[in-house]
Amino acid sequence: MNKNVFVVKHPLVEHNLTILRDKNSDCEKFNCALKRISYALFFEGTKFLPTIDISVSTPICDTLSSIISPDIEIIVSPILRAGLAFGDVAQEILPFSRVHHLGMYRNEDTLEPIWYYNKMKGKLKDSENTYVFVLDPMLATGNSGYDAVHNFVKQNIPVKNIVFISLISAPEGINRLSNAYPELKIVTSKIDEKLNEKGYIVPGLGDAGDRIFNTVY
Ligand code: URA
Predict the structure, then answer these.
(1) Crossing angle for the helix pair 27-45 and 84-93, nearest 10 degrees?
(2) CA distance 14 to 30
(3) Is 62 exposed, middle or buried (0-12, 13-18, 19+ CB in 10 A)?
(4) Average pLDDT in the chain
(5) Among residues 66, 144, 140, which one has the least CA distance to residue 103?
(6) Can you give the pLDDT at residue 57?
(7) Measuring CA to CA, how many Å separate 117 from each of 71, 73, 80, 100, 103?
(8) Tens digit of pLDDT for each residue in 7-50?
(9) What is the DSSP code string of 29-78?
(10) Closest residue (by CA) to atom 2 of ligand 1?
(11) Any idea of the CA torsion for 164, 12, 67, 155, to the nearest 10 degrees?
């Protein structure tokens, strides 16, 4: 296993993943379980952020204590539409981040992404000190994930500063991203078996966007 792939193993993550997989979980149940897992994924994904020590006065004495470096820029980038499900937790945990939405849907025949929105415009102030969290619950073929990561690499953000956060990953998607960008960090709660012929993760949970936004018909 690539040293930059981090699978969050925790009984509560497993428990909530079971709720997500269950086709009988309704939209409300699904989104509650997804939110609970999001916290675990974000704490894992943000453990790479640089910190500095500052002086703080407790009621007892002065001491040195760490904060996230004030010299960095953080970008949270949900891939629409399923990535939005991670957005609230990302902003709650990283209130000083910028949110850059990336809009892509997949061509169901070729499984290639088709871009329709990119909030990432203009030059970054300090790309070397910019950290990015790309959010997509399902890392399937890795095609849209690759495009999203490439979008930030083009802006001269070091690959080692980019974390891809997914709920469930297929081996195909992990290989696609890791082969293209070995220094990319991938944080996920499970690596499933494979993709089926339609590009869905097996066993997976079906179409994440449809289940999050209650558009299963
Ligand atoms: N996108 C999904 O929502 N589910 C999959 O299984 C694969 C891609």
Answers:
(1) 50
(2) 14
(3) exposed
(4) 95
(5) 144
(6) 98
(7) 29, 22, 9, 10, 4
(8) 999 999 999 999 999 999 999 999 999 999 999 999 999 999 99
(9) HHHHHHHHHHHHHHHHHGGGS-EEEEEEE-SS-EEEEEEE-TT-EEEEEE
(10) 207
(11) 10
Task: Please tell me the distance between residue 82's alpha carbon and the centre of ligand 1 in angstroms.
Answer: 9
C-beta of residue 206 within 8 angstroms of C-beta of residue 21: no
Token couple for 189: 């709660």
Q: What is d(CA 168, CA 164) in angstroms, rounded to the nearest whole number?
A: 12
- Give tens-digit pLDDT for 95-151: 999 999 999 988 888 888 899 999 776 678 899 999 999 999 999 999 999 999 999
Taken as a whole, the chain contains a residue count of 217
Atom of ligand 1 nearest to the CA of 204: 6
CA of 207 to the centre of ligand 1 (A): 5
Residues 7, 10: Cα–Cα separation, whole Å = 10
Pocket residues for ligand 1 (CB within 6 Å)? 82, 138, 140, 200-201, 204, 207-209
What residues contact 14, with CB distance under 8 A and at least 6 apart? none
The CB density around residue 25, as the number of other CB atoms within 10 Å, is 17
List Cβ neighbours of 126 (8 Å cut-off, separation of 6 or more). 73
Which is nearest to 21 in space by CA: 215, 151, 211? 211
User: 92: which residues sit within 8 A by CB, 6+ positions away?
Assistant: none
